[in-house]
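From the methods appendix. Each design record in this collection lists the tokenized structure first, followed by the designed amino acid sequence. Records were kept in a plain field format so they could be parsed without special tools. The example shown here is representative of the layout used throughout.

RECORD:
FOLD TOKENS (216 positions):
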């Protein structure tokens, strides 16, 4: 009886079951969570039961040069137009440069829902938290104007996703969800003196993403 019960267990739950996953976020290299940034992220997921896992990740945020060029060009055009409108006829164009540096930390619990599969595969629900801190440094070169913006962003989300192990090890994880964010921006002049705080963004947000990785 005991031997028969053991033999009846699915192959997934035998010694070959995957409990550890290392993940990357390829879309973060195109555009990060914050404006004018790209995100280099590595995450680790650990299965803790047949239906659940926990995951944490770290991201380094840096300048998104293509989007930075577009945004800087638009801002340069706006500043130049304003200067011309106020009688500064000698200003034909002013170059604006923005650089971004920061960090992001994430933590989530994943509850897998697909009955015919065990964690870490199938549909899942996931309460998720992330904390981001970043600094933007901008310079209007022709006018010797420099300032910085320090941004902090707390995100609380409920995510719905699907994760699959393709072949023996390759992992694909897609997700979407709704959440609440608390974002604060503090501005400083070129001497580092504090000049103000902004909290303008809508707190409700939609999240979506793609992770790929290796299971073992």
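DESIGN:
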């Amino acid at each position: 009886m005991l031997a028969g019960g053991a033999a009846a267990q699915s192959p997934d739950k035998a010694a070959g079951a995957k409990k550890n996953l290392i993940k990357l976020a390829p879309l973060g290299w195109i555009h990060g969570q914050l404006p004018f940034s790209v995100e280099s992220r590595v995450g680790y997921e650990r299965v803790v039961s047949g239906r659940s896992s926990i995951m944490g990740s770290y991201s380094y945020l840096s300048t998104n040069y293509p989007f930075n060029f577009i945004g800087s060009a638009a801002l340069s055009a706006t500043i130049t137009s304003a200067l011309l409108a106020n009688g500064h006829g000698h200003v034909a164009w002013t170059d604006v440069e923005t650089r971004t540096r920061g960090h992001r930390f994430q933590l989530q619990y994943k509850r897998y829902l697909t009955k015919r599969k065990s964690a870490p595969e199938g549909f899942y629900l996931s309460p998720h938290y992330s904390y981001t801190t970043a600094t933007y440094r901008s310079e209007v070169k022709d006018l010797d104007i420099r300032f910085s913006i320090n941004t902090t962003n707390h995100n609380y989300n409920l995510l719905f996703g699907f994760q699959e192990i393709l072949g023996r090890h390759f992992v694909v994880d897609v997700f979407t969800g709704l959440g609440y964010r608390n974002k604060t921006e503090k501005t400083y002049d070129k001497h580092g003196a504090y000049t103000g705080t902004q909290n303008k963004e809508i707190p409700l947000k939609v999240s979506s993403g793609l992770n790929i990785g290796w299971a073992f």
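APPENDIX NOTE: The CA atoms of residues 62 and 101 lie 5 Å apart.
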